[in-house]
Specification:
The chain has 175 residues and is an alpha/beta fold. It has 3 helices and 9 strands. The structure holds inosinic acid and magnesium ion.
Amino acid sequence: MQVLIGREQIAQRVAEMAAQITADFAGQSLIFVGVLKGAAIFLSDLARQVKLDATFDFIGVSSYADKSHTSGEVKLTKDVEQPLVGKNVLLVEDILDTGLTLTYINSLLAAHQPRVLRTVALLDKPSRRLKPVQADYVGFTIPDHFVVGYGMDYAEQYRNLPDICILPTAAWKHG
Ligand code: IMP
Ligand code: MG
């Protein structure tokens, strides 16, 4: 598979984002809320470089299921486990695509009444957006490729690839 963003480039950008987040929340604490499962690897790398008191939580949604195109439907499969009322919450996403997932999760988390709700997405594919939503921190803006690796999957495969790779169209279009 063709590498779109290599591991060194990812590590460098993650460090920059962590430094920015550390500065923006200086002197405060943070709850990282990762979106399962794609954001797990990004969250673990990012959080280890954020120099703040922090806790982790995870939220589960089903959107892409086993397909490489969105169903346009988002379902909550796992809610957060700790109270977010009055807290600084950083929602951690792997990739922002149509925006359906982030729009749904934003309204869901807002209902928990955090003090501040910010979002970080490792990747952004703005050309695919259906909902007018943006992340506060974006790692890389990429063209409309289906990517896998560094946590991201195609039918649950390839999450453990250390680089972000382009899934060849032939691998899914006619599958
Ligand atoms: P959205 O709701 O269309 O913005 O989709 C967001 C979710 O779709 C992400 O959290 C990913 O899980 C998945 N997704 C979107 N694009 C890709 C991709 O290129 N590779 C793997 N997963 C993707
Ligand atoms: Mg996801």
